[in-house]
Amino acid sequence: FTYTAIVPAAGVGSRMAADRPKQYLTLAGSTVLEQTLMRLLEHPAIGQIIVATAEQDPWFSQLLLARHPRILRVNGGRERADSVLNALQEVETGQVLVHDAARPCLRRADLDAVMTAGLHPQGAILASRVRDTMKRGNGQGAIATSVSRDELWHALTPQCFATASLQQALTEALAAGATITDEASAMEWAGFHPQLVEGRSDNIKITRPEDLALAGFFLQQS
Ligand code: C5P
User: Fold this and answer.
1) Which domains does the chain have, with CATH numbers?
2) Is the CB of 102 under 6 A from ligand 1?
3) Which atom of ligand 1 approaches the CA of 14 most closely?
């Protein structure tokens, strides 16, 4: 295998207002996390999938996929970057993918594209172009200025990098106290310019309650 996939799933997802983290909500006969894991398991170049969950997480062990031979669970950390770093310690391949637990609608063509582009030394991420007009607020609920959307992208996942580069970038960025909300931001901090691979906009991150119905609809489309 050339690739390992890391799935950070140690967050609480407070915007869902549910009784459990969003990755454990029901979707298409299983759960959000299992749907996400199936998209990765289906790919022949991905060997191990490492899921980082909270140490006291009572839900993961109840999943059917929890005992899958290619799935390994590790403890997450304080922030997403800590969770990814913990998982990176178990990676044995030269290339690694990081994919949000809450993005179950990933398509094979997008996965292929980011895996290929990620072989570039700078790495690569799936992204989609911003389609709405963008405004910067003035801090008082009104518009300060319009922001050109020409070079604005939504950062999606998977994000794909050389394992050693990502490990070094995350370690150094965390030690420096940099703000890291995705893996590419750690790479940027280290001076890399990951490729933007234009992906489908239905690769949504389940964030609000209405997103579950939308994801169910997207999963039904072939
Ligand atoms: O909240 P948000 O959707 O941005 O979280 C992104 C991902 O990072 C989620 O999949 C969440 O489970 C994960 N995460 C983590 N460890 C943390 C915090 C968040 O794995 N300490």
Assistant:
1) 3-220 (3.90.550.10)
2) yes
3) 1
Q: How far is the CA of 53 from the centre of ligand 1 (A)?
A: 9
Ligand 1 centroid to Cα of residue 199, in Å, is 21
What's phi and psi for 96, nearest 5 deg? -135, 145
> Which string of DSSP letters, residue by residue, matches 3-14?
EEEEEEE----G
SS3 71: strand
**Ligand 1 contact via 166 beta carbon (within 6 Å):** no
Q: Distance, CA 181 to ligand 1 centroid (Å)?
A: 9
Mean of pLDDT values over 59-67: 97
In angstroms, the CA 72 to CA 175 distance is: 27
Tens of pLDDT, residue by residue over 13-24, are 667 778 899 999
Atom of ligand 1 nearest to the CA of 12: 12
Evaluate if residue 12 carries a pLDDT over 80: no
Q: Is 54 exposed, middle or buried (0-12, 13-18, 19+ CB in 10 A)?
A: middle
Distances in Å between the Cα of 141 and the Cα atoms of 103, 134, 136, 148 are: 31, 14, 10, 20
Question: Rounded to two decimals, what is the model's pTM?
Answer: 0.96
Kindly state if the Cβ of 76 falls inside 6 Å of ligand 1. Answer: yes
Q: What is the mean pLDDT of residues 159-174?
A: 98
